[in-house]
Inverse folding.
């Protein structure tokens, strides 16, 4: 993992694998930490590897106060544009696609929803109820669930609601081991990066709750076609679902097998929230 610090603004880009094209997000806050960016970049690397693409995950952070936001973003965009590297950046928290000078993808939520729901139905065939935490996928997620015959259950606390599927992803590590012990669902389906901690995965396995890898469930936008997103994500989840150590480890092993074909060394550390 390489951290490239910018010269014209308090910002950096975490680049997981060197010398290849990359994709990832840009976030802005008064202070963006490198540790979180490393984790996000690693998750994207594994998503790309899962899809058989020789690319790297990247994650950029811009640290700026509200009054200096616009100038900081402009300086970031100008400096990164001067690099030789081929990086495709999209907007994360605190930034818009317009800020970055890239067209917004109107199908992004539909693509995410298509892949996530397909993953959930593969993990729990015949699922008929779901509860949603966070806004990942937006209204498109509810529409996709409805189209697939799944009723969305409303609850003041989605982690206490009983349902076949829990869709979550409002922030990194939102499902920790204590939350995992409260769940009454068949599977946890991430709609954002790294929402399940390492300890939570172990607790889910002990309680026979299927925890799915975020780098697969959120891969729809990388696929780029709604029908294809459903097909591809469902096929990979089906392939890793019965791994002896669970689908998250199974998906990591699968991605690493692809990475080993073209990288001399595997990146150190798997994409899981601490």
């Amino acid at each position: 993992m390489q951290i490239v610090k910018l010269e014209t603004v308090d910002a950096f880009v975490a680049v997981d694998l060197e010398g290849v094209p990359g994709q990832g997000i840009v976030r802005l806050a008064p202070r963006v930490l490198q540790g979180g960016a490393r984790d996000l970049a690693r998750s994207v690397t594994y998503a790309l590897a899962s899809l058989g693409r020789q690319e790297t995950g990247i994650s950029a952070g811009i640290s700026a106060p509200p009054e200096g936001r616009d100038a900081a973003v402009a300086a970031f965009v100008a400096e990164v544009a001067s690099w030789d590297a081929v990086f495709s950046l999209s907007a994360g928290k605190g930034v818009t696609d317009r800020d970055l000078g890239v067209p917004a993808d109107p199908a992004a939520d539909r693509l995410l929803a298509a892949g996530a729901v397909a993953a959930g139905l593969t993990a729990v065939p015949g699922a008929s109820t779901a509860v949603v935490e966070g806004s990942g996928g937006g209204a498109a997620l509810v529409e996709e669930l409805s189209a697939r015959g799944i009723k969305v259950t409303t609850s003041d606390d989605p982690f206490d609601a009983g349902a076949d599927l829990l869709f979550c992803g409002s922030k990194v590590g939102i499902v920790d081991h204590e939350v995992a012990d409260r769940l009454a669902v068949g599977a946890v389906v991430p709609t954002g990066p790294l929402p399940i901690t390492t300890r939570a995965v172990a607790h889910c396995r002990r309680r026979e709750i299927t925890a799915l890898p975020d780098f697969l469930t959120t891969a729809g936008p990388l696929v780029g076609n709604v029908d294809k997103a459903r097909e591809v994500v469902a096929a990979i989840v089906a392939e890793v679902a019965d791994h002896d150590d669970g689908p998250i480890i199974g998906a990591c092993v699968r991605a690493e097998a692809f990475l080993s074909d073209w990288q001399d060394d595997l990146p150190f550390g798997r994409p899981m929230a601490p």
User: Anything to note?
Assistant: The domain at 2-100 is CATH 3.40.50.10860 (Rossmann fold). The chain has a mean pLDDT of 94. The beta strands are 2-5, 11-15, 22-29, 56-63, 87-91, 129-132, 151-152, 162-168, 184-190, 210-211. The radius of gyration is 18 Å.
